[in-house]
Known about the structure:
The chain is α/β, with parallel strands linked by helices. The protein has helices spanning 21-35, 60-67, 86-98, 120-134, 187-197, 215-228, 243-252, 258-276, 296-303, 319-328, 332-335, 342-345, 357-365, 370-378, and strands spanning 6-10, 43-46, 50-54, 73-82, 104-111, 138-139, 146-152, 157-168, 177-181, 201-208, 234-241, 281-283, 310-311, 381-386. An eight-stranded mixed beta sheet has the order 2-3-1-4-8-7-5-6.
Amino acid sequence: MIKYDHLMIRFGELSTKGKNKSSFVHLLFSNVKHALKDFENLTFIEKYDHIYVGLNGEEYQKIVERLQDVSGIQGISLVFKCENDIEVIKSSSLELIKQEEGKTFKVKCKRGNKKFPIISDDVIRQVAPVILKNTDLKVDVHNPNILLNIDIREEATYIFCKTFDGAGGYPLGIAGKSMHMLSGGIDSPVAAYLLMKRGVKIECIHFASPPYTQEGVIFKLEDLLIKLNRYQPTIRLNIVPFTKIQEAIYDHVPESYCITMMRRMMFRLASKLSLRRNCPVISSGESVGQVASQTLDSMHVINEVTNIPVIRPCAALDKLEIISIAKKIDTFDISIRPYEDCCTIFTPKAPKTSPKLDEVRKFEQEFDYEPLLNEAIKNIEVRQIGENKK
Ligand code: ATP
Ligand code: MG
């Protein structure tokens, strides 16, 4: 019995990328090889339109699952590779379709290789009768149980019935890197995932306020990032000591403005670090209207401290949508572990939902925060989560 022997990986959005395409494909190729490095027997072929993974006896299910986490892949087909010979195509098609479940079928053919002497319609006319004659299957051109694809290319013909969806987006790394603000909550890991799915690498910044926040928060962040390592093999986590800044805020600013001020300081720090680490953008898990600091007015006043673009992938999602993504990427259970966040500790009873910029500026003139920010940046603790863990 012949067996499917390759996976054929399709790129989707990449196809539209013109002359950058080959660098996109190279990057995706190395991301794919990296994602599958635990499967020892696989072989890899990079072509202009597809990447082929030779199974060499490995079961395909786990490999497909792994590939479904690699951004930049549109679809993955389980294929049988054979020579460009109509007799071989006929007999292989028959053997393969016998292994599929269903009562109806349709044959589709694509002849990319124009040197192949039989046009695609005629290939279908030759293959379909062989199947009709040798099986109980019936033809259904509109809604077949089994769609048998015959893809005739330069180097070989690929026959397949099963195609799995990929994650879509762009290959990780192609879009550069974002300085991602990671709290221990539900939203920020989801935002990180949504960015990575678009091909954006992340580096994380976290503001810790010991002794008000505990070491447990950092373990929690590490656990969250281990889940995200599935999409990005190594993630750098920058832990910024935030206690002194936070205490200074509470000494100098009225309670109702503390959160606004704290977040302005967070964005100032994120901006400073993003410049040093070559991140052209900052990202966060903010979602419009979720809490006082996330009203549009608050965002305006907070964002005013930086001219670096801030991407908020969760901005327009509601909490239930965010939770369902968190469950899908397996971060939800970690995120709901109880912990003290620097925001929750000092939460005022009545935070401002529409803070005024001139007010904020007035308060800020009253204390010399710049040295505190520089000191915090100087004392950042860096951890690498993932493969190249130090
Ligand atoms: P999350 O679930 O991500 O914690 P949230 O709904 O609790 O979000 P906030 O606590 O207001 O909302 O935080 C909004 C965003 O600000 C977070 O998603 C995160 O990107 C950033 N943020 C908040 N606290 C911290 C922190 N201690 N360190 C780094 N980033 C933070
Ligand atoms: Mg939070």
